[in-house]
Amino acid sequence: MFSVRWSPSASADFAAISILYPNRWNDIDDAGDDLDDKLRLDPMTHGQHISEDLWRIISRPLVAYYTVDGNEVTI
Q1: Whole-model pTM?
Q2: Which tens digits make up the pLDDT trace of 35-58?
Q3: pLDDT in tens, 4-41
Q4: Domains of the chain: which residue ranges?
């Protein structure tokens, strides 16, 4: 299992998206939970390697970029 840490900027972006699209809150919240679940389980299997240490994962309507360091994933 991996631990997932949302950086301050990722948390702020998530909050901004939630405020901008209140009619999509359920979709956004579900996607955030899905991202956390998949990244905790196996970030390399569920994401796409972009370059060097950068990975991307998609859970519609969200796209998140992250890094993996040991057992910690940082969005």
Answers
A1: 0.91
A2: 999 999 999 999 999 999 999 999
A3: 999 999 999 999 999 999 999 999 999 999 999 999 99
A4: 3-74
Structure tokens at 68: 């993996």
* Residue 4 three-state SS: strand
Residue 22 per-residue DSSP state: G
Burial class (CB in 10 A: 0-12, 13-18, 19+), 43: buried
Q: What is the C-alpha separation between 42 and 44, in angstroms, rounded? A: 6
DSSP letter for 70, please. T
CATH fold, domain 3-74, is YaeB-like fold (3.30.2310)
